[in-house]
Amino acid sequence: MGLKNLSNKRFELKKYSAVSLSHKLIDKNIFPIINIDKSFENVLNYQIKSLKPDKLLIREPIYDNEIKILNKIENSFKSLEIVKIPLQSLINHKEFIESYGFPETFSKFRKIVEKNNLILNPIDTKKNFIDFKVRSNLNKEYERIVDIEKFSIKDFINYLKKHVKSYKETRDQIHGQNISSQLSVPLSLGILSPRRIVKLINEYEKNVLSNQSTYWLKFELLWREYFKLLGFYHGSRIFNPKGISQNENVIQHPEVYDWSKLEFKDDLVFSINEQLVKTGYITNRARQIFASYFINNLKLSWLSGARYFKSYLMDYDTETNYGNWMYIAGVGTDPRGGRVFNLEKQKNVYDPNMEYRKKWQI
Known about the structure:
Blueprint: H1 3-15, H2 40-51, E1 55-59, H3 64-76, E2 81-85, H4 93-100, H5 106-115, H6 136-162, H7 167-170, H8 184-189, H9 194-207, H10 212-234, H11 267-279, H12 284-297, H13 302-312, H14 318-329, H15 343-350, H16 355-360
Helix pairs in contact: 6-9, 9-10, 10-14, 12-14, 13-14
């Protein structure tokens, strides 16, 4: 599948999740913006002028560019009521910060969430969607949104039944069949609630099996949530060359904007890049290896690496992407500083027979 097709597919899915699938504030005669464009500001302007709505429901803006766009919309459409709604996440970010502050490490965050049972219950999507009668074609879009969510849930339940028991052993691999839950795509597109996933895992643990693997799957969801909280708390600082670090001595490598000039001379990193560019997906371990090479071997800015991933990843998610790159670069919350991966060790552990490298170097 070509890069253009990958990109189109990603945004085709995103247009069906442009409105949150999980909140209670969808009122009668309000329908989702289902068109998507390169410029979100242009999409909003076009839809508001065309549909002349009384109210706009939108995710609570976090970053400076989002706030700037929303301010423009507010100034351009004075009579439009804008309701800002937090994204559905595992916890209530605002209440968490008010009660506990921002935990400087993931470990502290995890212990607070688990000790105080802070994970929220999922909200039924279908009950909270209206039957869009204002425009007949929207009925089909509504059905498709619900169908995509159903498919994602069904797919995950199948994973629980067949493969979750070995998740802890396979989660760190770079290739192979059924080595991960494959939740990153529906989560990044907003078509599956992380709360619902946790609930399904809890039910599975109660009725079928509870082991280290089922716990580690929830553990990974908590890591994702920690990065979401980090973005909520620090805002646009996550796009700063120094990240959220207070260290004035952070080494700032040069940025790169022309991807064609990048050279990946190591055979493992070359293979990882080939898979990323050709498929739009690489495993978490592969992302860490690539990021370490990009920062520590090529001596390039971690921000450039984060933008590089943004260009190609099918499951791109702002907070997770920038949070992980900061983590490897040592400008995030990791108390041990940056991470440098020994490439020869990674090859010996994760691709000893060169199966992965042979596959992607053809």
